[in-house]
Amino acid sequence: MELLTKNEFLHNADSFKKKIEDGTVFIYPTDTIYGIGCNAQDDKAVARIRDMKQREDMPFSIIAPSKKWIYDNCEVSGEALRWIERLPGPYTFIFKLLNNSAVAENVHPGVDTIGVRIPNNWFTEFVAKLGMPVVSTSANITGEDYMKTADDLDEQLKAKLDFMIYEGEKKGRPSTLVKLYEERVEIVER
Predict the structure, then answer these.
(1) How buried is 40 (Cβ within 10 angstroms: 0-12 exposed, 13-18 middle, 19+ buried)?
(2) pTM for the complete prediction?
(3) Confidence (pLDDT) at 92
(4) What is the pLDDT, as a whole number, of residue 189?
(5) Above 80 in pLDDT, residue 144?
C-alpha cells in the first residue's frame, strides 16, 4: 500500500484519477473519519471493498461528485431540498435512487435507496473533478472500530489496499444519517 500526503496525491491527481477509474481501492480523508473508496460504477472494485470489509450485502454510501448528480439520479422531495442546502457537511442523506445505472448494483444490493455524502473536505473537490461517484464507507472491518488515525488501520485491510491519503488524526464520528425517502424525515446519529 502506498501512503500519500494530500500534496503528494494532488501533485499526481491525473495519475490517481486514472487509477480510480480503473478500479483501484483506497483510503481517503473526509470531514468526519477516514473512508474506503473506489469508483462506485465499477462492480469489481466495489466487490473488493465488500470482501475487505467482510460486508456481504449491507448497502454502501457514495460521495456524489455534485449536488446536480443528486438531482439527476435521486428522488428529491421538498424537504430534501432544504437538507441538500446544508452540503457540504457531515451528513449521509438516504434517497430513493431513480437512475440504477448511476452506480454499480452491488453498491446497494437489494434496496432502491442510496446513501449520498458531500463531505466538507478537500477530497470532495477531487471527486467533483473525477466526475463520478466514489464509494464512501468507513475504513474498518464491519463491526470493528472506525479509523481515526493510521494506527487504527486493520492489518488485513492494509494488505489489500492500493493507496491511502493520510492527513493526520480525525476527531469526528461517522456522518449523521438523514433518511429522506419516506414521508417523514428520520435522523440517525452514529
Answers:
(1) buried
(2) 0.95
(3) 97
(4) 80
(5) yes
